[in-house]
Design goal:
Elements lengths: L2 H25 L11 H4 L5 H13 L6 E11 L4 E11 L3 E6 L8 E5 L4 E5 L4 E5 L5 H5 L4 H9 L19 E2 L6 E8 L2 E8 L5 E10 L3 E15 L2 E13 L6 E9 L19 E2 L2 H9 L2
Parallel strand pairs: 6-14
Antiparallel strand pairs: 1-2, 1-13, 2-3, 3-4, 4-5, 5-6, 7-8, 8-9, 9-10, 10-11, 11-12, 12-13
Helix pairs in contact: 1-6
């Protein structure tokens, strides 16, 4: 196969995997695992006041910056494929999260744009796109998950499903456990959903966030998001390295994907457009169309 054909195939594979990543992100599905293997870590702390104070410290660690912009190294491992590609991330608080993939820094092949109103996934190679509201995704709508829930994961913060932000009084909804190693678990239970944030006992920084879903019909699912390489961003600290694992048995067949987003140098630049305008040359397709294309690779 010629070098040009290889490049085309690589771009197609990259586009397919970014679409798969986006679909898994917005549905937050995963495989069956226990939320915590350390039973001691899930026991309630003796002092409710002490636990609430720790949750407050974790909440207070949220960065103040309105914008976060960086070049990124983006990697996807689906078991059968392992792809690494350059790109960029643009995040504006309460407004947008955008990931763009540009192999070798030359041509953009894929884009994910999350806003409070919709999810946009663009396939630059095939000139196709998906645009849907969170209400159109039954799983998200049913469980109160929306843009602000996803934003909190990217911004390394606590969240309460269905709410735009966590108020002072809402902090009382979280439960803390005894320290397991150097981390204290903070949990929130809502229906079939369990949320766990493991925060450093010393710094109160969130090092790991886990979203689990359990149902008799769809099995147990899990999103496991790890945060590493914290660096100063203003007076706070922000993780430059995000590693998350998403897997699902909901389709009857186990599927796991590992995604890595490594930020190179974060700026707080605000001089960029918050919305993507889709060209009339692009064809709007359904989620099912993209899934079928991915499965046929």
């Amino acid at each position: 196969m010629s070098r040009s054909n290889n490049m085309i195939m690589n771009r197609r594979n990259i586009t397919a995997t970014i679409c798969l990543s986006a679909l898994l992100i917005i549905t937050a599905c995963a495989t069956k695992k226990e939320v915590s293997e350390n039973k001691k870590g899930t026991e309630p702390v003796q002092s409710v006041t002490q636990g609430l104070r720790f949750v407050q410290k974790v909440s207070d660690n949220a960065v103040y910056s309105k914008n976060i912009v960086s070049k990124i190294d983006f990697s996807v491992n689906t078991g059968g494929k392992n792809i690494s590609v350059g790109g960029s991330i643009h995040m504006r608080k309460d407004d947008v999260i955008r990931i763009q993939l540009t192999p070798m820094g030359l041509i953009e092949v894929g884009r994910i744009e999350l806003t409070p109103e919709y999810v946009l996934i663009m396939d630059r190679i095939h000139k196709e796109y998906i645009q849907a509201s969170y209400k159109d995704v039954e799983f998200l709508n049913k469980n109160g998950l929306n843009f602000y829930s996803l934003q909190a994961m990217f911004w390394n913060q606590l969240f309460i499903p269905g709410e735009q932000r966590v108020s002072e009084t809402a902090l009382e909804q979280y439960k803390t456990g005894n320290a397991a190693g150097n981390m204290i678990p903070i949990t929130l239970q809502q229906g079939n959903m369990t949320y766990v944030w493991n925060a450093s006992e010393q710094t109160a920084l969130i090092l790991n966030a886990i979203v689990s879903y359990s149902s008799k019909q769809h099995g147990v699912s899990k999103l496991d998001w790890k945060y590493e390489d914290f660096k100063a961003l203003g007076s706070k600290k922000f993780p430059y390295n995000h590693l998350f694992t998403l897997s699902t048995e909901a389709s009857g067949k186990k599927k796991t994907i590992n995604v890595g987003i490594k930020m190179n140098k974060i700026t707080t630049d605000s001089n960029w457009e918050a919305r993507t305008t889709v060209s009339a040359k692009y064809k709007k397709v359904t989620v099912e169309d993209v899934i079928n294309k991915i499965m046929n690779l």
